[in-house]
Amino acid sequence: TTPILEVKGLTKRFSIQKGWFQKNSYVHAVNGIDLAVRKGETLGIVGESGCGKSTLGRCILRLLTPTSGETIFQGKNIRSLSKPELKAMRRDMQMVFQNPFDTLNPKLMIQQILSEPLIAHGIPKKDRQTLLEETIEIVGLGKQHLLRYPHEFSGGQRQRIGIARALMLRPKLIIADEPVSALDVSIQSQILNLLQDLQEQFELTYIFISHDLSVVRHISDRVAVMYLGEVVEFGDKKELFASPLHPYTQALLSATPVSDPDEKRARIILQGDLPSPSNPPGGCKFHPRCPSCFDMCKKVSPTLQDVNEQLVACHLYG
Ligand code: SF4
Ligand code: MG
After folding, report:
1. Which distant-in-sequence residues (6+ apart) come within 8 Å of 228 by Cβ?
2. What pLDDT is attached to residue 194?
3. Which family does it belong to (predicted)?
4. Residues within a 6 A CB radius of ligand 1
5. How many CB atoms lie within 10 A of CB 50?
6. Please, are residues 58 and 47 in contact by the beta-carbon 8 Å criterion?
7. Given ligand 1 and candidates 284, 305, 312, 317, which is best to mutate, with the most ligand atoms within 8 Å of its CB?
8. Hey, which residues does 26 pair with through a beta bridge?
9. Which of 12, 35, 138, 228 is the 20 to 30 Å CA partner of 57?
């Protein structure tokens, strides 16, 4: 099957101003990412904060303009779209944020907040009320909530409203950026279950961004592991968690608690912090922290290669 979304060589560079006497330098927040997302799947993107995963999500939705690379959505290259075509495409791609109310006007009722995307996309007034009532109930809130204000809701309810907002236009793809990271664990699983129900009901495709491996593991079909702006490992969730190949994935996994005692693995402690993306190490970017680093790693940057249908960028393989 053809993927619903393809990303090729996606790169986002930010320039950072130095002093007048120095040349500007650049941060490669996202550096040459290739991904193909299948219709109806959940693709998890995991990595430490600062690895570029949010930037990647925003570039895909064109909330940020990528520096280079291609994005092909439902067979169309986004770069070749006219303004009206781009607007139509935006209906099909929505985002769920960590704190959905950060950007919303606290003086507006939920009804008005949820109507905004409908108005922006010219949905006729007579259809709006039905959509509002239908959607608020789909996310597990009664329609009496439409007349309330943001401050009247708990964190979990707010995220339900954030999800309702993303659903208003009945999109095909939702990019969820840390959607449960601000919530208590018990509420997290409610929201994850809701997302899974909605996926079935509306045949949604998800890109699910999180620093939390156990959350990504719960919800994803396939997982991409990012490190300093690059995908270092990519594969089917089951295989990737059962036999992680990249030393970074192995370290991440060893640090998450497991419920299955058979799965016990030795804790791998990484040396040092995530290096600054403005001055990444040469060769393999992970080499200063890698317990398996050898000579070649300091000089040559590894590329993704296929190892038993898992993609991994590491010189230990091949
Ligand atoms: Fe470690 Fe070398 Fe593999 Fe990089 S290429 S992850 S430094 S073993
Ligand atoms: Mg982020």
Report:
1. 31, 51, 52, 274, 275, 277, 280, 285, 286
2. 98
3. Belongs to the ABC transporter superfamily.
4. 246-247, 284, 286-287, 290, 292-293, 297, 302, 314-316
5. 17
6. no
7. 284
8. 15
9. 138
Most informative mutation of 228, 298, 307, 316 for ligand 1 (most atoms within 8 A of CB): 316
Report whether 276 contacts 51 (CB < 8 A): no
Look up residue 233 and give its amino acid.
Answer: E
Q: How confident is the prediction for the chain on average, in pLDDT? A: 91
Pairing of strands 222-227, 205-210: unpaired
Residue 208 CA to ligand 2 centre (angstroms): 11
Enter the ipTM: 0.95
Please report, in angstroms and rounded to a whole number, the separation of the first and last CA atoms in the chain.
29
Measured between alpha carbons, how far is 56 from 45 in angstroms, rounded to an integer?
A: 10
In this predicted structure, the answer to whether residue 21 has a pLDDT above a threshold of 70 is no
Distance 296 CA to ligand 1 centre (A): 9
Q: What does the pLDDT look like over 244-285, one tens digit per residue? A: 999 999 999 987 776 665 555 677 777 777 787 778 889 999
Residue 100 pLDDT greater than 80, yes or no: no
Burial class (CB in 10 A: 0-12, 13-18, 19+), 126: exposed
- Ligand 1 atom index nearest CA of 246: 6
How many Å is the Cα radius of gyration of the chain? 21
pLDDT at 121: 95
Which backbone phi and psi does 231 adopt, to 5 degrees? -85, 120
Each residue's pLDDT tens digit, 101-143:
776 678 999 999 999 999 999 999 999 999 999 999 999 999 9
Q: Calculate how far, in angstroms, residue 134's C-alpha sits from the geometric centre of ligand 2.
A: 31
Q: pTM of the prediction?
A: 0.93
Binning pLDDT at 50, 70 and 90, where does residue 43 land? Answer: very high
Q: How far is it, in rounded angstroms, from Cα 174 to Cα 202? A: 11
